[in-house]
Every structure is written in C-alpha cells, then in structure tokens.
Amino acid sequence: MFYMTFPEVEVDVGVRRQVLADHPELMVVAFRFEAEMEGALHSHPHVQSTYVKSGSFEFYLDDKTMTVRAGDSFVIPSNARHGCRCLEDGELVDCFTPRRDDFL
Q1: Which H/E stretch holds residue 104?
Q2: How far is CA 83 from CA 6, 22, 103, in A?
Q3: Which pTM was predicted?
Q4: What residues contact 90, with CB distance under 8 A and at least 6 apart?
Q5: What are the φ and ψ backbone dihedral angles of 80, each rounded to 5 degrees?
Q6: What is the C-alpha radius of gyration for the chain, rounded to an integer number of angstroms?
Q7: Distance between CA atoms of residues 44 and 90, nearest Å
Q8: Using an 8 Å Cβ cutoff, are 8 and 18 in contact?
Q9: What is the average per-residue pLDDT within 29-34?
Q10: Averaged over 74-102, what is the pLDDT?
C-alpha cells in the first residue's frame, strides 16, 4: 500500500486545507473553517462531493442557498458556481474527480 502525508496549509484567514488522499482520478481533501469565515464563490471542471464532518455552513450553489450541518452531504456538478460561509467552527471533507492538481 502507498501512503503519503500532505501538510495542512492556510488558504485564507481562518480556513485551512489538507489533502488526505490523491490519485489522478480522485482526491479527498479536508477543509477546516473558523466561524464566520468564507469559502469564496468559484467553479471548477471537477465533480465535487462534500461531506460535513462537523459544524454548520451556509452553502451557495448556483442560485440556491442551503444550510448544512454535521452529517449532511451533497454533490456539486462540474462548473457549478459555489461557495460557503461557516456558521460555527467546522470541517468539510471534499472528494474531487478528477484530482485537483492545483492542490498538490
């Protein structure tokens, strides 16, 4: 088995990212947010699945807004504009296909 540890990096004030696993076809990434911090609106060609490990978030997906809490999960289609605001300290676990090479 091949195992690699990736460093946790600060991507913005109060937001940290750590790649947990990667392969050219799939990547798993943890994002840790402090309350009131935001994940800027953006889009990418990757399909993304998000699992809310802890905390709660207001999530924006195209023209919809939803509140998600620990235990919730959802899929973000390729090229959909999305972002979030952390309502209470929390962690998101995202899976991307294919891998996000820009995170390596």
Answers
A1: none
A2: 24, 22, 17
A3: 0.94
A4: 32, 33, 52, 53, 54, 55, 56, 57, 70
A5: -75, 135
A6: 13
A7: 23
A8: yes
A9: 98
A10: 98
3-state secondary structure (DSSP) of residue 103:
helix
Residue type, 31: F
Largest CA distance in the chain: 42
User: Is the backbone peptide bond immediately before 24 cis, with ω within 30 degrees of 0?
Assistant: no
First to last CA, the chain: 20
Which of 99, 73, 78 has the alpha carbon at shortest distance from 19?
99
What is the mean predicted confidence (pLDDT) over 65-69? 98
Residues 66-93 have a mean pLDDT of 98
Q: How far is CA 69 from CA 47, 58, 102, in A?
A: 21, 9, 27
Question: Has residue 46 got a pLDDT over 60?
Answer: yes
